[in-house]
Automatic annotation (TrEMBL), chains A, B:
Residues 24-78 form the HTH lacI-type domain. The lineage of its organism: Bacteria, Bacillati, Actinomycetota, Actinomycetes, Propionibacteriales. This is LacI family transcriptional regulator. Gene3D superfamilies: 3.40.50.2300, lambda repressor-like DNA-binding domains (1.10.260.40). Pfam families: LacI (PF00356), Peripla_BP_3 (PF13377). GO terms for molecular function: DNA-binding transcription factor activity; transcription cis-regulatory region binding. It comes from Kribbella steppae. Keywords: DNA-binding, Transcription, Transcription regulation.
DNA sequence: ATGAAAGCGCTAACAA
DNA sequence: TTGTTAGCGCTTTCAT
C-alpha cells in the first residue's frame, strides 16, 4: 500500500477556519484505497467487473476523502456531461419560467445540471448560444418558446441539429415547430392553432363577431399559430376574417397596453379582444380600465397560457391552459434519455394537450 | 508548413446535409497557421508578446477553421471558467426571475455563461448545489434570496465561502444577510427591515392599528427582516406589538390565500394586512374577495417586492419596490470582477435602496 | 479482476 | 519571439 502522495482529508475536524485543502482527485482515492486509478474509475462507472473487496475499499475512500469527480476532466476524456442547456428569450416570462422550472426539476431528479442562456428573442444570439452550448459539450440543448421564422435561420439551426447529434448531444425544440423532416431533433410542443381555435370559438359562441387579435411579432411562430386558430374559428362560424382587426406587437404587458390604447381612440369597432398571451392581456385590462370601460360589459377579453395572473385579474380571465411545466419536464426526460443516441433513432415528436379555462371575462352578447 | 493532420474545415460549402466533422482544436489551428500550439494559446490569451505576422495568421486560421476553444480543456488546465452559477429557490418567483434576469443580462454582456440550480428552499440541497458548482469550477456562485436561518447551515456555508475563495472563485450572497465578518464573500442586498418599516408606517399613518402580518417560514431571513421593520414601525407609532397578529406560511399565492381565509373566519380583529411578498398578497386579495369583503373599504392590503402583478390587482396594490434586476446585475458585475482575487481583497457589501410605491389598496381610517 | 499507459485539448514553465 | 514539454483529472484500450 505505497502512498506517494499524502492523502488529503476533506475536513480535519479542528473546527478552525482555514482554507480548505484542494479537493481530492481520483488518484488520491486510488492511493487511499490501495488500488489503481483505473479501478476507481471502474467502480465509479460501474461498467466493468470489480472485485467486491476492491469496490468496498474504493467506496469507503471516496466517502472519507469526500471525493467528487471533476466534470471537466470527465468531459475532456470524452464523456458526455450530464448538463442540459436550455435557452429561452427571457426568464421573466411566466410561461417560460414555468417551462424552465419543469426542465430544472426533472433534470435535478435525474442528476443533471442546467445551463441557461437567454436570447431576448434575437435569432442571431440564439444561434450563437446554441453553438456555445455545443462547445460546452452539453448533453442536450433545449430551445424553449417560439421564434420569428426565417429561412436562413432555419438552415443554420438545422445544421446545428446535425452537429449536435454528431457530438452525441441532442437538440430539443420545445414549444416551437419542427425543422424539416429527417432533421435529428426532438420536438415537444402543444397545439397553438388548436387552443386558439377553441378559445376563439368560445368567444364567437357568446355572440361576438368583431374580435380584435393582438399578436406578437409578425413572423413569430407562436403568434402565427394562434392567429391561424383564430382565423379558422372565424371561418367555422361563417365570420369573415378582417385583417384590420389584427395588431402585432410583442409579448409584454406594455405592448398589450399600447396596442389596446391605440385601438380605443376613435370609433370602437370590436366587442372582444383576444390577446396572444396572458401577459399582453394584462395590458389590455389596464388600457380598458383606464378608458373608463368595463370588462366584460363593454369589452370582453381572453388570453392564452393560463398563467397564475389570469386568476388575479378582475374579472378573472378566460384563457387557454398550456401545460408548460409538463412541457419542460418532458423535454428534460427526452434530453436525458440515452435512447436518442442510437444510430437508428427515429426522432421524436410529442404534442401536449391544451384546454380552455372559462372564467368571467367574456360577456354574452344577445 | 508540415501538416501531420488534415485540417478540418468547418463548412465545405457544398450545401448538402452531412454530419459536421468534429470541431477544430487548438492544435489544428496551429498546424493550419504553421505555428506551435503555444503560439496559438498566446494570441488567444493575449498575455504574451506574439509577432504581428504570426498573430494574423493564427487569427485567420481561427476564422477559417471556425475554431472555438474547448472550455473543459481550459478548465482542466487550471483556468477559471467564465461561468457564473446562480442558485435560487424557484425560477417561478417573479422577484427571483427579475434578479436572475439581471444576472443573466450582465453576465452575457461580459461574455460569461450562467449555470443555474434551484433548491426549493431546501438548505441541504442548497449546500449540495454550491458544492457541485465548486466542482464545476464556476467563476462565482451567486445565492439569490433568503434562507431559513440555522447555525450549522451557516457554518457549512462559511466553509464553502473559504473553499470557493481558495479555488479562485467567489461566493456572492444576494438578498440575504452576510455570514460572519471576515468571511470572504460578497454581499449584495437591500434593506428588508427598512422597507417594511416604511410601508408599515404608511399604513399606520392612515389610521390603522391592527395590522395582520403574513410572513414566510419562521426563520426565513427575508421574512424575519420584514417582520422586524413591521414591529419597529408599530413601536414608533406607539402601538403595541401583538404576536397573535403574525402568521407564518410560505411565499406563495396559495399560502397567502389560506392564511387569510383562516383569519377571516370568526371575529375580524384587523383592518389591514401586510403580506411579506406581493405573491402572497395576491392570495390575500383572492380570499378577501371570496369572503365578499372589499379592498380597501373593509380590509387594506400592502405587499412587498412591487412586482408587475401589483399593478394588475384591483385595486392596485401599494408595495415596497425592490430593485431586483439591479441586484442581479450588481451581483454579476462583482462576480466577474477580477478584483476579488487579490490577496488583500477586503470583501464587499452593497446595499440597494427600496422605496414605497403608494397605490390604492390602503383606506384612510378616521 | 487489475494495472500501466496513452490521450482528451489546453496552459504555462522552461528552453532556445 | 517562439517552440518543447509536462501536466490538469479522468477514461479506456491493452496487457497481465
Amino acid at each position: 500500500m505505497a502512498s506517494a502522495r499524502t492523502p488529503r482529508t476533506a475536513d480535519d475536524g479542528s473546527g478552525s477556519r482555514r482554507k480548505s485543502s484542494t479537493a481530492a482527485t481520483l488518484g488520491d482515492v486510488a492511493t487511499h484505497a490501495g488500488v489503481s486509478p483505473a479501478t476507481v474509475s471502474r467502480v465509479l462507472a460501474g461498467n466493468y467487473p470489480v472485485s467486491r473487496s476492491a469496490r468496498q475499499r474504493v467506496l469507503r475512500s471516496i466517502r472519507e476523502l469526500n471525493y467528487v469527480a471533476n466534470t471537466h476532466a470527465r468531459a475532456l476524456a470524452g464523456v458526455q456531461t450530464k448538463t442540459i442547456a436550455f435557452v429561452l428569450a427571457d426568464v421573466r416570462g411566466p410561461s417560460f419560467a414555468e417551462a424552465a422550472h419543469g426542465v430544472e426539476q426533472e433534470a435535478a431528479r435525474l442528476g443533471w445540471l442546467c445551463l441557461i442562456g437567454t436570447t431576448q428573442g434575437d435569432r442571431e444570439r440564439e444561434l450563437a448560444i446554441v453553438r456555445l452550448m455545443r462547445e460546452q459539450r452539453a448533453g442536450a440543448v433545449v430551445l424553449i418558446g417560439g421564434v420569428a421564422d426565417a429561412d436562413d435561420y432555419n438552415e443554420q439551426m438545422t445544421e446545428l441539429a446535425y452537429s449536435l447529434r454528431a457530438a452525441g448531444s441532442l437538440l430539443v425544440l420545445c414549444g416551437r415547430p419542427p425543422l424539416a423532416t429527417g432533421v435529428p431533433a426532438a420536438v415537444i410542443g402543444y397545439d397553438n392553432e388548436e387552443g386558439a381555435y377553441a378559445i376563439t370559438s368560445h368567444v364567437l359562441a357568446q355572440g361576438h363577431r368583431r374580435i380584435l387579435f393582438l399578436g406578437g411579432e409578425e413572423r413569430h411562430t407562436t403568434s402565427l399559430g394562434r392567429l391561424e386558430g383564430y382565423s379558422r374559428a372565424l371561418n367555422t362560424f361563417g365570420v369573415e376574417f378582417d385583417p384590420s382587426l389584427v395588431e402585432h406587437g410583442v409579448f409584454t404587458r406594455a405592448s398589450g397596453y399600447q396596442l389596446t390604447k391605440k385601438r380605443l381612440t376613435g370609433a370602437r369597432d370590436f366587442t372582444a379582444v383576444f390577446a396572444a398571451t396572458d401577459v399582453m392581456a394584462a395590458g389590455v385590462y389596464a388600457a380598458v380600465n383606464e378608458a373608463g370601460l368595463s370588462v366584460p360589459d363593454d369589452i370582453s377579453i381572453v388570453g392564452y397560457d393560463d398563467i397564475e395572473l389570469a386568476q388575479d385579474l378582475r374579472p378573472r380571465m378566460t384563457s387557454v391552459h398550456v401545460p408548460y411545466e409538463e412541457l419542460g419536464r418532458t423535454a428534460a426526460k427526452v434530453a436525458a434519455d440515452e435512447d436518442h443516441k442510437r444510430e437508428d433513432w427515429p426522432g421524436l415528436q410529442v404534442t401536449l394537450k391544451t384546454h380552455v379555462v372559462v372564467r368571467d371575462s367574456v360577456a354574452r352578447l344577445d
